[in-house]
From TrEMBL:
The chain crosses the membrane at residues 31-54, 66-85, 91-117. It holds the Pfam family LrgA. This is CidA/LrgA family protein. Keywords: Cell membrane, Membrane, Transmembrane, Transmembrane helix. InterPro entries: LrgA/CidA. The lineage of its organism: Bacteria, Pseudomonadati, Pseudomonadota, Alphaproteobacteria, Hyphomicrobiales. It comes from the Bacteria. It is found in: Cell membrane. It is a multi-pass membrane protein.
Length: 127
């Protein structure tokens, strides 16, 4: 598991270094994630990559370890919220209204999409 987590962090570090070095308008972790995805897709083609941290056992143990401690990943977000309490207090009502509006818009979009797909599937059944 340690090797797999090290590989994840190495991909993130590589992405961050490339983005900063080339001045790309892209977050470093996103490029690192794309690098990790490329490595995972390539592991089936190359036997050398299929063993070790990229092997199915390595990925599975790392993912189980991350899921077991998933709540720890919310600590930085919670600290960020606590640091901005004065901002939340001054704009609290606007934030609540925007959140409520976004929930309503999301629900409406979901319902309309469901109805459209349902109608298209019914038309397809009659053909």
């Amino acid at each position: 598991m340690l090797a797999s987590l090290s590989l994840i962090l190495l991909c993130q570090l590589t992405g961050e270094a490339v983005v900063r070095g080339l001045g790309l308008p892209l977050p470093g972790p996103v490029l690192g994630l794309l690098l990790l995805l490329t490595l995972l897709l390539a592991r089936d083609r190359f036997a050398l990559l299929a063993h070790g941290p990229l092997g199915k056992d390595g990925v599975e143990s790392a993912s189980k370890g991350l899921l077991a401690h998933l709540s720890l990943l919310f600590v930085p977000a919670g600290v960020g919220v606590v640091q901005e309490l004065d901002l939340l207090a001054s704009h609290g009502i606007a934030i609540v209204l925007v959140l409520a509006l976004s929930v309503v818009v999301t629900l409406l979009a979901t319902v309309l999409t469901f109805r459209l797909v349902s109608r298209l599937l019914k038309q397809q059944d009659f053909r």
